[in-house]
Amino acid sequence: MAIANSTGNDLLALAGRFLFASLFVASGVNKLFWPLATIEYVRTFRLPAPLLWCIGSMLLELACAALLVFGYRTRVAAWILAAYCVSTAAIFHHAFADQNQLIQFLTNLAMAGGLLALSIYGAGLFSIDRLIGDGHVEITSNYAQITPSDS
After folding, report:
1. Mind telling me which residue stretches traverse the membrane in this protein (predicted)?
2. What is the residue range of 56's domain?
């Protein structure tokens, strides 16, 4: 038996998913319409196959953002995006002498932290995950109850 979750919390979960997704949609669309900027940036790090980096990151960002928006396989999408944020921070933003790069590094880590929290609590009431009965954690006042996933 699950503890009822307030509609207000579910609306906040929906808003949080949309806000997270907006960042990845913007980045993915930027790569879609202006791929050369990403390809040149990857080249500056002397990484192999910059076009594949561009296409792969664009597809990952857009696909996972769509999963977050619809609340489908939210936990998996959040884990993938969290790993992506940490890896891109380590690969592309490790020049800590440049304060902008340090801020970008910490921003990526903060996003990963938020995504991991999202993976714990799930998408909330307004999601496909909820419709198909995916397990989730519901928070009400000081109590949390985990409902098992059917999958």
Report:
1. 12-30, 50-70, 77-96, 102-126
2. 7-147
